[in-house]
Amino acid sequence: MYFHPKNIPLQSFVYASLLLLTLLVPLARSFEPRIHFVSYWKILFKAIAPIALFFIVWDVFFTAKHIWGFNETYVLGFNFYGLPLEEIAFFWVVPFACVFIYEVLNYFVKKDLLQKFAPAITIMLLIVSGVIAFRYATKLYTFLSFAISFFLLCLQILWIKPAYLGRFYLAFMVILVPFLAINGVLTALPVVWYNPAAIIGVKIGTIPFEDVFYCLDLLLPIVNLYEYQKKKTNISVP
Q: Mean of the pLDDT values across residues 97-110?
């Protein structure tokens, strides 16, 4: 780990500010008595920790291989194995905010609207991820993003068989709105750049299409572990 001291100009707070904006509402509303999200913090951090570690290692490797990189103009200058401190915080802040959205929807949307569609959605995502991973096996980010999605979706069908999968898909669709908005800023400036040789080049605005499945890869195992911990500890909202 090393620190790169500098006189920090205002634009260097861009990535940190986006993370703070992401964290602000979930953190402030965690003590709201109806959902009382604070009561889930301990098990949530247990669920996030192993997945965050995996993605940080992935990030270090990809950064070293120049699959993607970071614009020093928009980060504070504190680095860990080539990763800005903000990027490491991303893997804690974003899942925290996303699981908050998941719990809010679970509380306010009583009916599991997508329960009967969950198997079809899973099969559709399996086909898409499998075909793209096979078709673009030479493009490292594309291949890994979609191959991991394929593996995780297979686990849902063959092993985990979660009753909450419809609720996860509903939350994921809602989560994509702020995720794409924030990621749009990161890729438009850009705070984060991508090596064109490692992606297929299909974009949502300035965001590589791969990022949608990368988001799925990050959140689905966290929700799996989170729900497992909830069941194991039998936590209920006051």
A: 97
